[in-house]
Design goal:
transferase; alpha/beta; Zinc Finger, Delta Prime, domain 3; DNA-directed DNA polymerase; DNA-directed DNA polymerase activity; ATP-binding; 61% helix; 5-stranded parallel beta sheet
Length: 580
Amino acid sequence: MVYQAFYRVYRPQSFEEMSGQRHVKQTLQNALLHNKTSHAYLFSGPRGTGKTSAAKIFAKAMNCEKAPSKEPCNECPTCRSITEGSNTDVIEFDAASNSRVEEMRDIIEKVRFAPSNARFKVYIIDEVHMLSNSAFNALLKTLEEPPSHAVFILATTEPHKLPLTIISRCQRFDFKPITSSEIIERMKMVLSDAEIDADEEALKIIAQAASGGMRDALSILDQVVSFSGDKLTAEGALLVTGSIGEDIFYQLAEALLSKDAAAALSLLDQLIAEGKDVSRLAEDLITFFRDLLLLRSAPDLHELLELISGDERFVSMGNAFEPETLYSYIDILSKTQQEMRFSNHAKVYIESALLKMIHLEGVVDHATQPVDQNLMHKIESLERMVASLQQQLENGVKIGEAPAQGNQPKRSASKVQSLRIPTGKINEVLKAATRQDIQIIREEWASMMQTLQRSHSALLEETEPVAASDSAFVLKFKYEIHCRMASENPSLRAGLSEALRARTGKAYEVVYVPEDGWLKAREEFIRTNGLAKQQDSADNDGVEELSSSFMEESGSTADDPVVAEAEKIFGKEFIIVHDD
């Protein structure tokens, strides 16, 4: 018979066998017992926490011949067929390999058919976040109003990738990482059934390496059993998982306590030579110093320890370190762990972290005295300053002079902070502006805004393209603060240019300007180029075409909806606009 991995053989077949997730189990059991099951569920959480297992158990309990019951009987033909995967009314769908809209439409077409041998048709869609947008749209209506005999259970490790319209139509259950104690209890049951002996320390090492995932824990357990044989030992678990033993941690802590850099670096080099992952090493060191801090603060809470056993030698070791030192060690290692993610020289970072930890207290003690001397110098300087000010007051210095000098930097600062209007770029656009160019942008503007990110489209909500040439256009903002934020956001600028290029086929340069700045720049352009006079003259054909195009596209009448509506009703030849 073909050997099967532990996590497949010992997959839970009832809610009682599931480890952890008490809030999920209790809610689903109550719904089953009182016939209040919903038509759509969303199970989200880290890998290996029981999402798919819970979905299968729930499908069995709904279709069990002894229902309503909070547990499936696992004895009736329906329960057995679902367990074996041969029931045609419980459909498991892997969205990772069937993400196209065609596969989803095939499912939707078959939803309306009644179940063949069960009460409910249950669709379990695993890794649902991998579906395409078209597939989500196809699923949307059916998910909201499925037939009375259909139930959808969506499982995902990344719920943030799902559309909100999908999430809002489901009852959502968030699966939490399984605790180390629950993982150890489950492994004990598995080993007892398999008649394999194991050290408690070995199970603790495996549970720590699993990081809250039961499937990971059982897979590592399977590997350790293959390595160790009939007896699981801590040494075998350390070799398979790549973790570090208690003795190495103790020696490293002793080297840090005695400021022995050579011993600490030698231990580190030995661990790396044995194949220990440097990132995992930093993570284990953080957990080790956390355990020491816990032993020092609450020595009775041994069940919360993750890496060490909490015997007398570690209790005395924890008391030898000051709490501030342990906090500093954790902070140094946390920063080092972040920096190592973006470097190819992780070993250098972990070695530097150890040296920082070794020299930490010495630097603090050495710096204490100079800090006190600097403080005394500052106090003496302040005393001299106060005495000088008192002398000036006695000599009759005018009090009003100081505020006047103090206000000057504020005025200059406000000038520096004011937004600079790109008048030169605006003039270049206006010189080449045409009615056709601005019309193209305005026609595509609304549909283009829908393709932008939500934060970008919100920032551009109260904007208007007011003038355009073949290669650039002026974008007017109602508020200066929005104009500043948009012009200083490289992501928005790139997204806007790319969206326009996709809609119009041209890579436009966008000139950002607030409404006041646009009005001033436009008025200056009209006055400088004499466009108002040239519009009334028919002598200059080239200038006349530029003038009329710019005045019609950028003039004040185009910005005023009242004037535009009046022109539609009465005609432009009967409308005269007077600016107050």
